[in-house]
Specification:
Structural class of chain A: alpha/beta
Strand content of chain A: 15-25%
Structural class of chain B: mainly alpha
Distance between the termini of chain B: 30 Å
Mean pLDDT of chain A: 94
Largest sheet of chain A: 8 strands, mixed
Largest interface: A-B, 31 and 24 residues
Order of helices and strands of chain A: HEEHHHHEHHHEHEHEEHEHHHEE
Oligomer: heterodimer
Helix content of chain B: 55-70%
Number of helices of chain B: 3
Shape of chain B: flat
Strand order of the largest sheet of chain A: 3-6-5-4-7-8-10-9
Number of strands of chain B: 0
Order of helices and strands of chain B: HHH
Radius of gyration of chain B: 20 Å
Helix content of chain A: 40-55%
Chain lengths: 349, 81
């Protein structure tokens, strides 16, 4: 099969379609199996765990108890297997398209309406480059076409609910404006491929919209998507702990699912930095993993530990049990938090 | 199955994945054979398929997929769940 044909199946939602129908169907099955594992098997297991392990039980004892439940082995195997099947297939499927993808990314680099700011001397933090997040081969930063891989790979993570960026667009639409209505600069810290960032730019077309991330492959891909969509975003390679924005210069900061991918102290630095760049009256929205109950729910504790040890979420358990709620309340004048499957803090300087 | 084999089987916990694999292998075999039959018949009638040239399609309604998965993998769940 020639390279042109390999990438000729158009789009699936907002993603580049799998080059072959078999690959697309395989991943559709993996997505369905993951959905069944999370949506049907996991609640049954969680109920079994809560029925046998009291809330507040220390984690090692929780693990000992859960590991004796046969369904736990089944569920854990399915979760890790589907994750591995997903990444392996996406990586293998896109490999023949590599040259074409790299040409597209390179061609978009100098195009507008936004721009791309990469630092060739940028040094990635050790804590970051040491982890393959969510088990993605090469993680976010090591493969030049990692943005393509990440995008299709996270389709499975979202269980098909974000094929057209629906989840990310909804997230941007939920962001509250500062009460004075002035929105001149908005910043998405940890923007990855810029799905929320582009939605923010479209919501506030007169504002300067920034997408900040460490990973050049994700920023390049996000920029290429924005160019194609005519979306005006500045994608900039920066460390969330030392942003190149003046004090009190930003109206709105969004930080989505970033902190659980950082060691606790690094995350605290990122929070302080977000606070520094926001102007008085500016809004900060933090969205991340569900915070623990008191006493700690045994299943939630087990599940987060599993994620940490077996799903490339090295810092997740630490983050969830780090008391981030207090840290946020120490930094911001007004803080409201809501929780469902995740926790969102809405803060005003 | 003789009485001795039955006793041996009942002494070990059933592995739900063996059942699951058996179910799945049966489904795969049926599908492969059916597809092969369809492609052969189409070729006999002069219709050459080029499936990989077809544009990707949004799965849209995933009801059938999800029902299939539930039927296969539902075997791992306790009977009373």
């Amino acid at each position: 099969m020639d390279p042109v044909r390999r990438a000729s199946r158009g789009q699936l939602g907002t993603m580049t379609a799998m080059p072959r129908l078999d690959q697309e169907l395989y991943l559709d099955f993996v997505e369905g199996l993951r959905k069944f594992t999370i949506g049907t098997i996991t609640p049954v297991l969680a109920q079994q765990v809560r029925g046998s392990v009291a809330a507040g039980t220390p984690l090692p004892e929780v693990c000992d108890a859960v590991n004796k439940i046969p369904l736990a082995t089944t569920r854990n195997t399915l979760l890790t297997a589907t994750q591995e099947m997903n990444w392996r297939t996406v990586v293998e499927a896109y490999e023949p398209c590599r040259d074409e993808f790299e040409r597209k990314l390179a061609a978009a680099e100098t195009e507008g309406p936004g721009r791309l700011e990469l630092d060739p001397d940028f040094e990635l933090p050790e804590y970051y480059s040491a982890v393959e997040y969510h088990l993605q081969p090469g993680s976010y930063q090591a493969d030049p076409i990692g943005g393509y891989v990440y995008h299709y790979g996270t389709k499975v993570f979202h269980l098909g609910s974000n094929d057209r960026d629906e989840v990310k667009i909804a997230r941007a639409l939920e962001l509250p404006e500062p009460t004075d209505g002035q929105v001149r600069t908005v910043v998405d810290i940890g923007c990855s491929i810029g799905q929320v960032t582009c939605a923010m730019a479209e919501r506030w077309p007169d504002a300067e919209a920034w997408g900040i991330d460490l990973a050049a492959p994700l920023l390049r891909y996000g920029h290429a998507r924005a160019v194609e969509a005519g979306c005006r975003v500045i994608f900039s390679q920066q460390d969330a702990r030392s942003l190149r924005f003046d004090d009190a210069s930003v109206d709105l900061v969004y930080m989505g699912t970033l902190l659980h991918e950082m060691p606790v102290e690094a995350g605290r630095d990122a929070l302080r930095e977000a606070r520094r760049i926001l102007r008085p009256g500016g809004v900060f929205v933090l969205h991340d993993m569900l915070q623990p109950t008191d006493p700690i729910d045994a299943w939630a504790s087990y599940d987060r530990d599993f994620d940490t040890r077996f799903n490339g979420e090295r810092y997740a358990y630490q983050f969830v049990h780090s008391g981030v709620d207090s840290a946020v309340r120490d930094l911001f004048g007004t803080v409201e938090s809501t929780s469902d499957r995740t926790t969102t803090w809405t803060c005003v300087v | 199955m003789n009485a001795s084999t039955e006793r041996e089987l009942s002494a070990t916990a059933p592995d739900p994945f063996v059942r699951l694999a058996a179910e799945l292998a049966a489904e795969v075999w049926v599908t492969k054979r059916r597809l092969h039959t369809v492609e052969r018949e189409l070729a006999r009638r002069g219709i050459e398929l080029d499936i990989d040239r077809a544009a990707a399609s949004d799965a849209g309604d995933r009801t059938e997929r999800d029902a299939f998965i539930a039927r296969i993998f539902g075997t791992v769940l306790p009977a009373d769940s």
